[in-house]
Amino acid sequence: MDRFIEFATREWSLFLAAGVILALLSHGLYRDLTRKYKKIIPARAVNLMNDDDVVVVDVRELKEFNAGHISNSHHIPLDKITDRAGELEKFKDKPVLVTCKTGARSDMACMKLTKLGFSNLHSLDTGVDGWQELNLPVTKITKKKRK
User: Fold this and answer.
1) Which is the CATH superfamily of the domain at 37-133?
2) Is 100 one of the annotated active-site residues of the chain?
3) What is the pLDDT of residues 102-111, one digit of tens each?
């Protein structure tokens, strides 16, 4: 035991780093275990869309949404999700798939929707970027030039 204490005092920075890493891992694990929505990969999202009457909500900005989104997505930007949640009220008991560019904003949207009483939420883990990397279809909105 004395040798351990001697080592710990001599290598205090190593023990500090190990403590920080352990704390960060514990926080991430706790967050994953207490999350009230599911993070899913594109393949699981496709299964969900094929099996269930799922509602897709895209929380990106309009320019991003127009550049390519999952077909039949409802566009509600993240900063408007709380104000416009009433538009989704009729889907409260249906599966809701929330998407964004990479998955970060969809996580935030799912947290907000959970607080508003939505219970069957799914966040697309890799976002629309991951969706497109797998060559899954997207719909684009282009402005037509006037002559």
Assistant:
1) Rhodanese-like domain (3.40.250.10)
2) yes
3) 999 999 999 9
